[in-house]
Amino acid sequence: MNLKKIISFSLLTMLLMTASAQQIPNITDPRLQIKLPNVNGDSLSLASLKGKVLLLDFWASWCMPCRVSNRRMVKVYDKYKSQGFEIFGVSVDETQK
Question: N or C, where is the chain less crowded by C-beta within 10 Å?
Answer without folding.
Answer: C
